[in-house]
Amino acid sequence: MHTLQTKHLTKHFDTVKAITDLSISFEPGKITGVIGPNGSGKSTFINTLTGLTPITSGSIGVAEKVELTSIVSNDMPVYGITRTFQEVRLFEQMSVLDNILVVTTCRGWFKSIFEKHSAYHLAIAEKVLKRVGIWQFHNKLAVNLSYGQRKLLEIARVLAMSEIGKAQVIFFDEPYAGLFPEMVKLVSEIMKELRSEGKTVILVEHNMDLIRELSDKVIVLDSGTLLAEGNANHVLSRKDVVEAYLGE
Ligand SMILES: Nc1ncnc2c1ncn2[C@@H]1O[C@H](COP(=O)(O)OP(=O)(O)OP(=O)(O)O)[C@@H](O)[C@H]1O
Ligand SMILES: [Mg+2]
């Protein structure tokens, strides 16, 4: 049901060919690892699939038979797509708790601050903040969190969307970068839980041990094109993949 497919997806910024002709399928109940050297188009690929960057050409297949040639970020909850950002994006001047409530209630940030929230939404917020271990900071402003706590808050936001049934396809853009080992372990557990719940999980990551541990399938991007696709051990032993990384 929640397979996500791209057909000949292309995104060029003037002369920069960030993504060229990518036809890829992401399956439910699987973690797809997306790897590639810096600047190979991983984040741009996610941006085109989450309405952040318009597509130059090609199409995206979502929610069974819907075929899109343009996608805007406001539509993401409708298609059940959510994400975390490589450079964490939070509502900095809102509390940790409100950062969760603003996405689950879909009321916009202004109303979210002033309206009373239902016990249902509060219970979800408490559950996900406890899951990632930052409930004790729920009244703190997001801007005052540490780097690792900020990353965990973004992950909690994804979990909250999942709890309310609005996250079937989830993109994680380098969620482990800068995390302490215990947090790495926690994030991996969460990835596996999402997979076992049947979510379509896409993980962009540079740490190959994590890619090996978690990925059911790996795709390798090189200069915006698909270099390799398949089982992690097979793909990571390919000479052209190793060379693409060493050639950075
Ligand atoms: N908004 C933009 N305008 C112009 N060029 C861009 C823009 N966004 C990305 N690019 C270019 O597109 C290419 C792919 O960048 P992207 O950030 O997608 O790579 P990445 O694989 O995520 O790299 P990293 O591993 O460093 O995060 C790069 O050459 C980058 O400079
Ligand atoms: Mg990136």
Explained architecture:
- The protein has 248 residues and is α/β, with parallel strands linked by helices.
- It has helices spanning 42-49, 76-79, 96-105, 109-114, 119-131, 147-163, 181-196, 208-214, 232-236, 239-246; strands at 4-13, 16-26, 30-35, 57-62, 66-68, 81-83, 169-173, 200-204, 217-222, 225-230.
- Helix 3 packs across helix 5, helix 3 (96-105) runs parallel beside helix 6 (147-163) and helix 5 packs across helix 6 (147-163).
- The chain is globular.
The shape is: globular
Task: Examine the coordinates and then state which fold CATH places here, giving the name of the CATH topology of the largest domain.
Answer: Rossmann fold
Order of strands across the biggest sheet? 6-7-8-3-9-10
Look at the structure and give the CATH class of the largest domain. Answer: Alpha Beta
The major β-sheet equals:
6 strands, mixed
> Quick one: how many beta strands?
10
Uncertain segments: none
Going by CATH, the architecture of the largest domain would be: 3-Layer(aba) Sandwich
The first-to-last residue Cα distance is 38 Å
Structural class: alpha/beta
Summarize the structure.
This protein is α/β, with parallel strands linked by helices and 248 residues long.
